[in-house]
Amino acid sequence: MEMVQGCERCLQSHIDAARGLRIGEDEIELARHGTSSGPRYAAMIAYGLQVYREPTIISDEQIEALRSHGFSDREIADVDGLVAPNVLTGGFNLVAGLQSDPGHVA
Q1: How large is the angle between the packed helices 39-53 and 60-68, nearest 10 degrees?
Q2: How far apart are CA 39 and CA 57, in angstroms?
Q3: Distance between first and last Cα of the chain
Q4: Helices (H) and strands (E) in the chain, counts
Q5: Which of 18, 48, 54, 56 could form a disulfide with 23 if both were Cys (CB 3.0 to 4.6 A apart)?
Q6: Distances from the Cα of 41 to the Cαs of 3, 71, 74, 75, 89, in angstroms?
Q7: Which residues fall within 8 angstroms of residue 43, CB to CB, at 6 or more apart?
Q8: Are the C-beta atoms of 34 and 49 separated by less than 8 Å?
Q9: What are 2-40's pLDDT values in tens digits?
């Protein structure tokens, strides 16, 4: 999967955050491709991508499937609340011409 918005700076900050949480490189790579090795997290990642790409076609069945994975309504709503500012921040970075620091070491 390519970067959806093309913001290298944002991508790198998310990768750095995942590494800071000691998430393995294999799992980071799966997330970059829109999935996870765990079905529970794969379902939530797929939902987050749908919130970003096609929020108007999210169905009650999809929400119920997330609940069946053990996610609370609050956790599901949090995804919506996280997607919006990430879209805005990524868009701002692109418009402002911000680039990753060439000396940055992940």
Answers
A1: 150
A2: 22
A3: 20
A4: 5, 0
A5: 18
A6: 19, 10, 16, 12, 24
A7: 65, 66, 69
A8: yes
A9: 556 666 777 888 899 999 999 999 999 999 888 999 999
Residues 6+ apart with CB under 8 A from 52: 4, 83, 87
Per-residue tokens: 67: 């609940």
Instruction: Record the pTM.
Output: 0.74
Cα separation, 101 vs 74, in Å, equals: 35
Amino acid at 44: M
Report how far residue 106's alpha carbon sits from residue 100's, in angstroms, rounded to the nearest whole number: 11
Q: What is the DSSP string of 22-43?
A: T--HHHHHHHHTT--SSHHHHH
Question: Which amino acid, residue 2?
Answer: E
Residue type (1 letter), 54: E
When computed from its CA atoms, the radius of gyration of the chain, rounded to whole angstroms, is 15
